[in-house]
Inverse folding.
């Protein structure tokens, strides 16, 4: 439902159609430092929980609706945790991955 879109070039404007954007992109200078590039800690896209109607994966990172699919990353947090998530993700993934490794070990 977007009415306007923009691309990541500093000199680009907002566009109302793909045709308009495509024509303008051809005119933009491809020089250093003209791209708006940034990153963020993306969290909250694949909610973790035990209820499949309210979440994407369970607390072990197992996808509710397909076997053998696991999501081990910050997307399973309920929302941004308000700080660099690196250590929180490491801890959560270490626990989840260790459990998965134990489950798939061949019987010795």
């Amino acid at each position: 439902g977007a009415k306007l879109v923009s691309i990541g070039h500093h000199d680009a404007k907002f566009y109302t159609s793909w045709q308009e954007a495509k024509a303008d992109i051809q005119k933009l200078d491809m020089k250093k430092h003209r791209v708006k590039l940034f990153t963020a800690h993306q969290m909250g896209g694949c909610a973790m929980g035990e209820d499949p109607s309210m979440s994407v994966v369970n607390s072990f990172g197992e996808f509710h609706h397909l076997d053998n699919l696991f999501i081990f990353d910050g997307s399973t947090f309920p929302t941004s945790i308000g700080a660099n998530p690196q250590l929180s993700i490491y801890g959560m993934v270490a626990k989840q991955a260790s459990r998965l490794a134990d489950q798939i070990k061949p019987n010795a």
The chain has a mean pLDDT of 89.
